[in-house]
Design brief:
about 280 residues, alpha+beta, Double Stranded RNA Binding Domain, six-stranded mixed β-sheet, three-stranded antiparallel β-sheet, 9 helices, DUF3071 domain-containing protein, SepH-like, DUF3071
């Protein structure tokens, strides 16, 4: 390996002029980042530069992918380079996306009868208030689609679900216009049609068994009784016409069975005979 000596800086200001002392042959060496890292003895930076040079993704392609909606981490993973290198080229594009999302909030949603008087940001803020969402926690972003038009996206969290709504944005006079691209975007543009979900009432659990009525709860049919009923336990036998009071005193009172009154037969009534039935 031949040793070269430094002659000086080239007239272009970007290269060093080297010379072979033996042959007087001169060489031109670009004064790039690798040379500066080598002059500092930064071995780690030299290795990183080699990895970056092996990547086939150029700065223009990096910016195109960022503008199309990819993140810095996604592009770095696809290119096989560090996020720091991607950030250097992605930074101006990310600013462009952020600025476009901000402008879209001042655009007017297009409805059936024409552009709305209110802006997109005003309509969405009202819709979030109707639904009880925190509008300050929502995040806006924008990217350029394959057709060259800007797409604006709103991301927000409701409960445990992550939600998104997309609009197409056309810059123009008075803030431009936006058109809904999905169902979430259409719903947010019509906040007055929102119906709050009903609260489900909790019902008591069904009992495992049905209570059957007991025998005591069932009323037995009562026997047809006369108008001058006495006690159910003791009841006097009807008196036959023509009998004396003395006979009545001698005759003992008979206890009738409960709910079964003793009624004399017609023969006993006609013959004047008192019959005792057990």
């Amino acid at each position: 390996m031949r040793a070269l000596r430094v002659v000086g800086l080239h007239e272009d200001g970007k290269s060093l002029v080297l010379e072979d002392p033996a042959s007087r042959t001169r060489f031109l060496l670009p004064a790039d980042e690798r040379l500066r890292a080598a002059a500092r003895g930064d071995i780690a930076r030299l290795g990183q530069i080699e990895i970056e040079l092996e990547s086939q993704m150029r700065p223009r392609e990096i910016q195109a992918r960022i503008r199309a909606g990819e993140s810095v981490e996604q592009v770095a993973s696809s290119a096989g380079v560090s996020t720091q290198r991607v950030e250097r080229f992605a930074y101006p594009v990310l600013l462009e996306r952020s600025r476009t999302a901000e402008l879209a909030q001042s655009a007017h949603p297009v409805r059936e009868d024409g552009p709305d008087v209110q802006t997109l940001g005003e309509v969405i803020a009202y819709a979030f208030g109707v639904r009880g969402h925190d509008y300050n926690q929502a995040a806006w972003d924008a990217w350029r689609g394959d057709d060259g038009k800007w797409v604006v996206v709103l991301r927000w969290k409701a409960g445990r679900s992550d939600n998104r709504a997309h609009w197409s944005f056309s810059p123009g006079a008075h803030g431009g216009t936006v058109h809904a691209l999905d169902e979430n975007a259409e719903v947010l543009l019509n906040p007055n049609s929102y119906v709050a979900p009903r609260t489900v009432r909790a019902l008591a659990p069904a009992r495992d068994s049905v209570v059957q009525p007991t025998l005591d709860a069932v009323e037995e049919p009562r026997a047809i009784e006369g108008p001058d009923e006495g006690d159910d336990e003791t009841r006097e036998i009807p008196r036959v016409p023509g009998e004396s009071d003395g006979d009545d005193a001698e005759q003992p009172r008979t206890k009738a069975k409960k709910n079964h009154p003793i009624v004399p037969s017609w023969e006993d009534v006609l013959l004047g005979v008192r019959t005792q039935r057990g």
